[in-house]
Automatic annotation (TrEMBL):
Molecular-function GO terms, alphabetical: transmembrane transporter activity
Family to which this protein belongs: Belongs to the major facilitator superfamily. Sugar transporter (TC 2.A.1.1) family.
Domain Major facilitator superfamily (MFS) profile: 21-464
Protein name (database record): D-xylose-proton symporter
Lineage: Bacteria, Pseudomonadati, Pseudomonadota, Gammaproteobacteria, Lysobacterales
Transmembrane stretches, start-end: 18-39, 59-78, 90-109, 115-139, 151-175, 187-206, 266-290, 310-329, 336-359, 371-399, 411-434, 440-460
UniProt subcellular location: Cell membrane
Topological type in the membrane: Multi-pass membrane protein
Length: 473
């Protein structure tokens, strides 16, 4: 089963088993991407079907993110009490139920309710996957395995947008009836049932995190997992690894929010850094591209079919650059990639703001003149490239590994909750900002990209190659 020729200082191997179980856990990221992006192709149809204004459609699109914040908040507590694997199973059940409920919703409040339920499942999965992967992966390749979470997210986004485009094309439009008397936009939601079921089945077969087992006093079980997952067969190496884990977890009380507090700053500095990373990841506006892009391109003169095609192409670009990030994160490091990403996003968002300032006409007649439309398309995809190679995967890698062992799950839950709230703020306000002017909206996101660059240079520390047991607050 071994798939590498080298070990690290503790005799840990990167086995095929650890890669496969990391991939299974990261499927939660696929559902994260799928469930949050699938509404992209349904926005206009939902707005027309329920007669919603800009504010109402903004809430309908973004309400799942409030559920995600709740799920992320409680995920750490659930994971510490019941284990990482059982918590992933709970997320799978919620996602199956929400996909079916959203597709069959009869009123807008019904749709909002089921999207909230799905959001809770997504929030739980978003916290547990990076935590679990970081806790089973050897330090030498932890960055690459941690990046699988983001790869799964962008693959989920791609699958959602591709299925949206195919379903809308098959029906002749998102609002048109497709099968069983249901319009295509309902099938867009129902399509999420299948990956949620697959996720639930796969996580039944992954072992519990050795760090959670040690925290529960199950040393023999933790030893077996380390032997199988990391191919550690040396008794001395196993004893040292278990001792390191036990020492890092040693505490007189169970993990709780109080552990994150500091007298001087309210929270430990490392927790503030985690929250800031999460907020900046969203405040650069990336999810506007993946939640509203079909509507956005349609609004500036592209046909519905062309808008779907552009959105799918953008998601393909996102997948490809995430693969590049996975190849680079353990070579270049986390901090340099974030610096490159922030600088690139600031420039490309600025170009997009300029492009939309050149728009002519108004309302349904709004369009980008001449070559400006192509410049906007290139800038939008370049922006996705810079995000996908940096802030997309690297933030999840950092959140999974930067916190000390005894507070990791709880601190990650707080940081992920902040991320979902920031995502909600950006996503729910975009329709209103767009009505004010796309130049203002993208100019605002460009300003946040500049601030993110300053933050990384001043506050973020490199974690490449550092053992989790050596992370400090």
């Amino acid at each position: 089963m071994s798939s590498t020729s080298a070990t690290d200082g503790l005799g840990q191997h990167a086995t095929l088993r650890v890669i496969l179980i990391s991939a299974a856990a990261a499927l939660g990221g696929f559902l994260f991407g799928f469930d949050t992006a699938v509404i992209n192709g349904a926005v206009d149809a939902i707005r027309a079907h329920f007669g919603l204004n800009a504010g109402e459609i903004g809430i309908t699109v973004s309400c799942a993110l409030l559920g995600s914040a709740v799920g992320a908040w409680y995920a750490g507590m659930l994971a510490n009490r019941f284990g990482r694997v059982r918590t992933m199973q709970v997320a799978a059940v919620l996602l199956v139920a929400a996909a079916a409920g959203s597709g069959l919703a009869m009123a807008v409040w019904d749709l909002v309710l089921w999207r909230l339920v799905g959001g809770i499942g997504v929030g739980v999965a978003s916290v547990i996957a990076p935590t679990y992967i970081a806790e089973v992966a050897p330090a030498r390749i932890r960055g690459r395995l941690g990046s699988m979470q983001q790869l799964a997210i962008v693959l989920g986004i791609f699958a959602a947008l591709l299925s949206d485009a195919w379903l809308a094309g098959a029906a002749g439009g998102a609002a048109e009836v497709l099968w069983l008397g249901l319009p295509a936009w309902r099938w867009m939601f129902l399509a999420a049932v299948t990956p949620a079921l697959i996720y639930g089945l796969l996580v039944l077969g992954v072992p519990e995190s050795p760090r959670h087992l040690v925290a529960k006093g199950r040393m023999a079980d933790a030893r077996v997992v380390l032997q199988k997952v990391l191919s550690m067969h040396s008794a001395a190496a196993l004893d040292k690894k278990l001792g390191d884990i036990e020492a890092s977890l040693r505490s007189e009380h169970k993990p709780r929010l109080r552990d994150l507090c500091s007298k001087g700053t309210g929270l430990l500095p490392v927790v503030w850094i985690g929250i800031a990373l999460s907020v900046f990841q969203q405040f650069v506006g990336i999810n506007v591209i993946f939640y509203y892009s079909a509507t956005l391109w349609h609004s500036v003169g592209f046909s519905e079919a062309d808008s779907f095609t552009i959105t799918v192409v953008t998601s393909i670009v996102n997948v490809l650059v995430t693969l590049v990030a996975i190849a680079l994160v353990d070579k270049i490091g986390r901090k340099p990639l974030l610096v490159i990403g922030s600088a690139g996003m600031a420039i490309t968002l600025g170009v997009m703001a300029w492009c939309f300032s050149q728009a002519v006409g108004s309302g349904a007649e709004l369009s980008l003149p001449g070559a400006v439309g192509m410049v906007a398309l290139v800038a939008a995809n370049a922006y996705v490239v810079f995000f996908g190679v940096s802030w997309g995967p690297v933030v999840w890698v950092l959140l999974g590994e930067m916190f000390p062992n005894r507070i990791r799950a709880t601190a990650l839950a707080v940081a992920a909750s902040a991320q979902w709230l920031a995502n909600f703020a950006i996503t729910s306000t975009f329709p209103a900002l767009a009505e004010m002017g796309l130049t203002f909206a993208y100019g605002l996101y460009a300003a946040f990209a500049v601030l993110s660059l300053v933050f990384v240079l001043r506050a973020v520390r490199e974690t490449k190659g550092v053992e989790l047991e050596d992370m400090h607050a």
